[in-house]
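Input sequence (129 aa), recorded before submission:
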Amino acid sequence: MRAALLGVPKSFVDENLNDIVSFAELDDFIHMPVRTYSSGMHMRLAFAVSTMISPEILLMDEWLSVGDKNFNHKAEKRLNSLIEGSNILVIASHSRSLIENCCTRAVWLDKGTIKLDGTPKEVCDAYFE
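Predicted structure, token format:
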């Protein structure tokens, strides 16, 4: 369902199903009803499906935290790969390190109004002051 909502053709999902299941670490559970999955299993599966495509424009609301420490490391690696393959990344975040490490421009929005637009360092210095 998630893939369909993302506009991903069923044939693409079918071709990549083993990779999705493996990445989500659901090998032993994939044939169980999704309603029986834990919240962590749901999140890992959703993350695996959502990141199986390489968009030209990547929109993210905060950085995803899904699962245990090992899975978080694997997820971060995959997200970095997606970012490198995207032409444009737009991210909403309150994480200084994420903004300074991933962005070339930052915009501080306050109640829908641009408070500051500049380099990540300039905006972070003002915002986190």
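Checked by second reader. The chain is about 50% helix and 15% strand.
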